Amino acid sequence: MAENDLSRMNRYKDIITKVGNDLEMDPAVICGIISRESRAGSVLEDGWCPNRYGFGLMQVDRRYYPEPEKTGEWNSEEHINQGTEILIGFIKKIQAKFPSWSKEQQFKGGISAYNAGPGNVQTYEGMDIGTQGDDYANDVVARAQWFKMNGF
């Protein structure tokens, strides 16, 4: 799937790289989320997913983050910055919730929480149960690894 998004993702490479550097987040991880959430924008209508809850490349959900469209255009640096800050916040929540987990496990738990919330993450082995497709974190990590090997 990630390879199908590469040409679209490259349109946002400079923004993704800048946000990643500014927030100390691997740009490939940002790409993994963008690929999973919006297929690098290909499934969006005027920046929204079909159900009109998620906004932008990173699908910031207006049910939890009111009026995300006011943070910037759907494909803007401001939007990607907002989505990445949300991800970082979830990683920190998982670090606090599971201090005995390795950094890698906490990071992956934060990715899962980005989709289904930190309350959904109960065990490392079962963290994806209840996420979209029951495979969210595993899929995002696989996509991120692919983007890392392909220029991000």
Automatic annotation (TrEMBL):
Q: Its Enzyme Commission number?
A: 3.2.1.17
Protein's UniProt keywords contain Hydrolase: yes
* Gene Ontology CC annotation, any one: extracellular region
- UniProt signal peptide: none
Q: InterPro entries recorded for this chain?
A: Glyco_hydro_23, Lysozyme-like_dom_sf
UniProt keyword annotation of Hydrolase present: yes
GO biological process terms held by the UniProt record? defense response to Gram-positive bacterium; killing of cells of another organism; peptidoglycan catabolic process
Q: What class of enzyme is it?
A: hydrolase
Q: What are the UniProt keywords, alphabetically?
A: Antimicrobial, Bacteriolytic enzyme, Glycosidase, Hydrolase
Its catalytic activity? Hydrolysis of (1->4)-beta-linkages between N-acetylmuramic acid and N-acetyl-D-glucosamine residues in a peptidoglycan and between N-acetyl-D-glucosamine residues in chitodextrins
Molecular function GO terms recorded: lysozyme activity
Highest taxon above the source species: Eukaryota
Per the record, the similarity remark reads: Belongs to the glycosyl hydrolase 23 family.
Tell me the protein's name: Lysozyme g
Identify the species of origin: Albula glossodonta
